[in-house]
């Protein structure tokens, strides 16, 4: 049975506020992390296409952003996830400019792992994440039927270096509590997101190098990042 967000949980809600440096000075200003409103879905997808598709480690290695078919696949996946109303957006207080986005949905034990895409590039990326997820064995490891999952975390480059990604991840905690989820788990594919996740309290469930992944399946070859780690990490929410 597909998990759905209760109508009793107000949407959109603000889940976290924090202070970080302003754009033009060392002064601390307030930011907020909230549900991504429906009227900003297209803006969020544009943000992810501009930054995540280009900058994320596996995407870089495969040249995802340069392949129109692959981009069509990932955009279609994001559009399928957003109506679940679980994705998060970060704004600076007093501004409607998107600072960062985390595309989220809820993984369920009953989900079928048979997603098929038009692009060999995105199929390989998706299947890599599925492989790492299966090795982590989240449902049995934590004895849960559902958990908060992600398919992309990105911060606008001009806002990077302020701990924004860490605070977006931290916002998952009150979100999970509000909707009744006991766990958030994600495949963190690069050192920056892995560091941010560790700061919030995510623990490693399964870790593998990209070089090792290439030996599992020749499609899981990510040139230039063979020594980097791909990690499935989880955070219990009480």
UniProtKB/TrEMBL annotation:
CDD domains: NAT_SF. InterPro entries: Acyl_CoA_acyltransferase, GNAT_dom. It comes from the Eukaryota. Residues 146-192 form the N-acetyltransferase domain. Signal peptide: none annotated. Pfam families: Acetyltransf_1. This is N-acetyltransferase domain-containing protein. SUPFAM superfamilies: Acyl-CoA N-acyltransferases (Nat). One of its GO terms (molecular function) is N-acetyltransferase activity. Gene3D superfamilies: 3.40.630.30.
């Amino acid at each position: 049975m597909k998990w759905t967000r209760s109508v009793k949980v107000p949407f959109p809600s603000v889940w976290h506020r924090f202070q970080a440096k302003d754009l033009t000075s060392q002064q601390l200003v307030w930011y907020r992390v909230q549900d991504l409103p429906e009227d900003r879905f297209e803006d969020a997808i544009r943000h992810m296409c501009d930054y995540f598709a280009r900058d994320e480690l596996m995407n870089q290695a495969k040249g995802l952003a340069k392949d129109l078919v692959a981009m069509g696949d990932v955009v279609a996946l994001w559009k399928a996830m957003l109506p679940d109303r679980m994705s998060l957006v970060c704004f600076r207080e007093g501004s409607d400019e998107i600072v960062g986005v985390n595309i989220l949905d809820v993984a369920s034990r009953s989900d079928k792992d048979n997603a098929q895409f038009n692009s060999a590039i995105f199929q390989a990326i998706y299947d890599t994440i599925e492989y790492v997820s299966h090795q982590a064995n989240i449902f049995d490891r934590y004895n849960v039927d559902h958990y908060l999952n992600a398919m992309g975390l990105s911060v606008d480059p001009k806002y990077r270096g302020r701990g924004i990604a860490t605070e977006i991840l931290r916002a998952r905690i009150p979100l999970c509590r509000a909707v009744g989820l006991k766990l958030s788990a994600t495949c963190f594919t690069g050192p920056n997101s892995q560091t941010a996740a560790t700061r919030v309290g995510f623990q490693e469930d399964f870790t593998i190098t990209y070089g090792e992944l290439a030996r599992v399946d020749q499609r899981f070859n990510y040139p230039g990042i063979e020594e980097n780690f791909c990690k499935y990490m989880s955070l219990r929410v009480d």
